[in-house]
Write a structure and sequence with these properties.
The complex is a heterodimer of chains A (84) and B (817). With 84 residues, chain A is α+β, with helices and mostly antiparallel strands. Chain A has one domain. Chain A contains two helices and four strands. Chain A has helices at 5-8, 13-23; strands at residues 25-32, 36-43, 46-53, 58-64. Chain A starts with a helix and ends in a 20-residue tail after the last strand. Chain B is an alpha+beta fold. Chain B has 28 helices and 28 strands. In chain B, strands 14, 15, 16, 17, 18, 19, 20 and 28 form an eight-stranded mixed sheet that branches. In chain B, strands 3-9-8-7-6-4-5 form a seven-stranded mixed sheet, with helices on both faces. A four-stranded antiparallel sheet of chain B has the order 22-23-24-25. In chain B, α2 (59-72) packs antiparallel against α10 (280-294). The chains are: A alpha+beta (84), B alpha+beta (817).
């Protein structure tokens, strides 16, 4: 069953990761400053970024991508198109 | 008089569910794999577990149990009043920290109630039970009833009614105890705790006893449950909880506002002294579990569970399933309406690999059947989505397959229909239903050809009823009639019957001693425990009112079409109950059909029928009686017959009719076997012009005024002489056996008119047997929108324990799991 962005945001980080594992598709990843590994997923027709803290060794944030500008920050290997 | 007890009805329903393979099951696994259970060689995801946090597989708990066995063996066999193993002391200390109040561990929650209630509730107190409170509290309350402490029932979660009752009772009793559940085990709804705390603050004599079993560990700081989640225990409140659900160890606990109260229950609570203790293994696990509750770990577990609950709630909503549960409860209830849809859906889901529970009568009203399931922390999102998707798919198929509709389900539960689902009726047939609102609109020859030989409801009788029961001031005397005919493709009648919408007394079919007690309350409130009811037949007709041609292969379809129409009529008239009455007992096929369609069976009072009318003289009649009956006849009938003038009156004068009516009222006041409202005078007036009604008047020869002392209001059809109503002078009855003479005169008159048989009606069955009447047990099928009034009658009957046992009234509730 497809969830909306709003419904997806009702869940905590742990559950969001479970949903991404179940229904999402990994697209690409990038390393940001401060040792964060940020991965991009597509799920239910929208993009989601998950932020992994390499020091704490855990995912600290999973949020839908709200702006297409964010996609330009990823390596160009993937053809990314803003979904909605 | 043979009365089918509620126990038998419940037994029938449960047996039926068992035959369908949806209850009384057993796992076949030698080693459980988390939440997968194997039943009938099929692995199923378990959606029926109350171990909401999935702690049964927790390493700490398992080690706690193992270590305790290593240290203390498998049991420590001593009453706690003498000596307890140290695990108890440790556990109670930890629990006191968890709850912030003195706590006593009990072997089970049920035993906890049985220990606490007789100590807490005093002889000058009164108890008010929530209608849906768990059966373990209801059972414990029986002990209070035995001590003559009043125990009342109040509609579920109705704080307005509770406050009203507190105001009424507060001067009369020292303490008023309200008993409820924290989270209710069927619908997963919660007690209105904020309002209860307000009442506790407002009324010093108000006390609250609550069973928070289903909320333990899942909610609140340190897992202290729903009612104490974020507040201190009130000084006039006691909480019982369970370790047999999310706490995962077995056992229970009582939480008190102060040490003195706790110590008193510890000292005097019967089951705490005499019942066996928890075993070391359970205590070891419980101590380990309490440690988890006192650590931060419990929050994480609770959060995992809440996420699963949230996901389930969201999916149920998105799939448009009628979920009745509150959003944070781990218990879900999907409305399906009828038991047959519940069986169908559960079977289908088991076929898809999911085990769920059935929420069925008597835990819920019979037409409020549902699929009840639970969510635990161990469920994965994949499992939850697969189950909900399967349920959504099969829900609509099951509803259609059982010839029901979503609209009917939503109406039965009084919930707004939010989804549209195109439904095709797969049960199309060539049967055609006709509904008419007056007997005048039906071909009387056709009606009489099938109905006149079944009882007193031929077209003329019904016409008189229609005329008599309208336009009255008293609402109980205004009836609405409907007539139903189901025909096959050739226009032949497969089913015919009529219904009456009338205000009936809820105890109408109850034993007389219950009616007796209710009637005392009706002196202040004449409409106490009365309900607008749609009845097949009428309150004053006798016989099998439902013509059903069972040689027609579509008879069940015809019955289903009629019952669906009946439901529409019920909605149209806003009737609370439906009764299909006077059907033959011991009809297993019909029983199963009716139960599947949301009716439960109850017994009617036995009726007596004189079936042998082949005697030629009074002497022949006498000689055919048994030896004992012959003696009775000589001593009580023949001996007095010469004292009476017997007259068949066709057109009584007004004063005659008034004296007959007075005699009828005498009997009405004294007979509660079939407790109906008093019939209006207009009905008796309407008999006079009818060629089929006549009056057998008995007066005494030694009375120069020939004042009637007995009367029979009799209705004749072609083959049957119906002595329907009797009136007697009780003073003369004592002296001259008027009642028996009336009965004998009915028999003689029936013979004179060449009747094939004589129905003698309900009640006084021993008397009727003495005249050679055979006894006929009949039953009624009932459907109630809610169980409250029936449960209330159950509490009333509980005051007479001996009789209660005979009828099983108090044992009618089986309990929520």
């Amino acid at each position: 069953m497809v969830l909306t962005k709003e419904e997806f945001c009702l869940f905590n980080v742990k559950s969001k990761l479970k949903l991404m594992e179940k229904d999402g598709c990994f697209l690409t990843t990038k390393v940001s400053q401060n040792n964060y590994l940020i991965s991009l997923y597509e799920i239910y027709g929208f993009y989601v970024e998950s932020t992994y803290d390499c020091v704490q060794m855990k995912t600290v944030r999973v949020e839908p991508v709200l702006s297409s500008n964010v996609l330009e920050l990823y390596p160009p290997a993937k053809q990314l198109q803003f979904l909605n | 008089m043979s009365k089918k007890s509620i126990i038998e009805t419940v037994d029938q329903i449960i047996n039926h569910a068992k035959d369908r393979g949806v209850i009384h099951l057993a796992t076949e696994d030698t080693k459980l794999q988390q939440n997968i259970i194997t039943i009938n060689d099929k692995p199923l995801v378990n959606f029926g577990s109350c171990s909401y946090l999935g702690l049964e597989f927790n390493e700490k708990l398992r080690n706690g149990a193992k270590n305790a066995i290593d240290d203390y063996g498998t049991q420590f066999s001593s009453s706690r009043a003498y000596v307890s193993p140290k695990f108890y002391v440790d556990l109670e200390d930890k629990l006191t920290r968890i709850f912030g109040s003195p706590t006593i561990v009990t072997a089970t929650t049920t035993l906890g109630h049985q220990a606490a209630l007789p100590v807490l509730v005093g002889p000058n107190d009164v108890v008010i039970l929530d209608h849906q409170v768990h059966s373990s509290i209801q059972s414990a309350a029986q002990q209070l009833k035995a001590k003559k402490i009043p125990v009342e029932l109040i509609r579920h979660n109705r704080m307005d009614l509770l406050e009203k009752r507190i105001l009424e009772l507060k001067g009369q009793y020292e303490n008023i105890w309200y008993m409820a559940d924290g989270i209710y085990s069927m619908y997963g709804d919660t007690t209105p705790i904020d309002e209860i705390y307000s009442l506790l603050d407002k009324y010093p004599s108000f006390n609250f006893y609550v069973d928070d079993a289903h909320a333990m560990s899942c909610f609140g700081e340190n897992g202290r449950g729903f009612v104490l989640a974020d507040r201190k225990i009130h000084e006039r409140m006691v909480v019982a909880t369970s370790f047999a659900k999310a706490f995962a160890t077995g056992g229970g606990a009582l939480i008190f506002p102060n040490k003195e109260m706790a110590q008193k229950v510890r000292n005097c609570g019967g089951t705490l002294i005499t019942s066996g203790p928890m075993q070391p293994s359970a205590l070891g696990a419980a101590n380990a579990c309490a440690d988890i509750h006192l650590s931060g770990e419990i929050k994480e577990l609770q959060e995992d569970l809440q996420e699963n609950i949230k996901y389930t709630t969201l999916l149920l909503k998105k799939y448009g399933l009628p979920n009745l549960s509150e959003k944070s409860s781990p218990i879900f209830f999907i409305a399906v309406g009828l038991p047959k849809i519940g069986y169908n859906l559960i079977e289908r889901l088991m076929g898809e690999g999911f085990y769920l529970n059935l929420g069925i009568f008597p835990a819920v009203p019979i037409k409020n059947t549902g699929v009840r399931f639970t969510i635990t922390r161990l469920h994965t999102f994949e499992q939850i989505e697969a189950m909900v998707a399967a349920m959504a798919h099969h829900f609509h198929i099951a509803v259609e397959e059982e010839s029901y509709s979503l609209e009917q389900i939503y109406k039965a539960f009084k919930i707004e229909q939010k989804t549209n689902h195109t439904q095709e009726n797969s049960q199309k047939s060539n049967l055609k239903l006709e509904r008419l609102n007056s007997i005048e609109k039906i071909d009387s020859n056709e009606w009489d050809s099938i109905m006149a030989e079944r009882g007193a409801f031929d077209s003329e009788y019904l016409s008189i009823l229609e005329q008599s029961f309208k336009g009255h001031q008293a609402k109980e005397n205004n009836w609405t009639f409907d007539y139903f005919l189901v025909r096959d493709e050739n226009g032949k009648i497969v089913l015919a019957t009529f219904t009456t919408l009338a205000l009936l007394k809820d105890d109408m079919l109850m034993p007389h001693y219950i009616s007796n007690e209710v009637e005392q309350k009706r002196q202040d409130d004449p409409y106490y425990l009365t309900t607008k009811t749609l009845t097949v037949g009428s309150p004053i007709s006798e016989g099998d009112h439902l013509y059903l041609n069972r040689s027609n292969k579509n008879w069940k379809k015809a019955l289903l079409i009629f019952m669906n129409e009946l439901e529409k009529v019920q909605q149209e008239y806003n009737a609370e109950n439906i009764i299909i009455r006077d059907l033959k007992d011991n009809d297993d096929e019909l029983d199963a059909f009716m139960v599947d369609n949301g009716f439960f069976k109850t017994s009617m009072p036995d009726s007596g029928i004189i079936e042998k009318m082949d005697w030629n003289s009074e002497e022949d009649f006498y000689l055919a009686l048994s030896t004992r009956s012959k003696r009775h006849f000589r001593e009580n009938i023949r001996r007095f017959e010469g004292e009476f003038n017997v007259e068949i009156v066709k057109n009584p004068t007004n004063s005659q009719l008034q004296s007959y009516y007075d005699l009828y009222l005498n009997v009405k006041k004294n007979s509660l076997d079939l407790n109906t409202f008093q019939l209006p005078y207009a009905f008796f007036e309407a008999m006079i012009p009818s060629k089929n009604w006549e009056f057998i008047e008995l007066s005494l020869k030694n009375d120069p005024n020939k004042k009637p002392v007995g009367v029979v209001f009799a209705y004749m059809t072609k083959d049957i002489y119906n002595g329907l109503i009797v009136g007697i002078d009780y003073e003369k009855n004592y002296e001259f056996n008027v009642y028996r003479q009336c009965m004998y005169q009915v028999i003689k008159r029936g013979k004179a008119l060449n009747s094939k048989f004589l129905p003698l009606g309900f009640s006084a069955i021993v008397e009727k047997k003495k005249f050679g009447a055979s006894v006929h047990g009949s039953c009624a099928y009932m459907q109630a929108k809610d169980n409250f009034n029936m449960e209330l009658l159950g509490t009333i009957s509980g005051k007479d324990e001996k009789k209660t046992d005979n009828y099983g009234i108090n044992k009618r509730r089986i309990l929520p799991i």
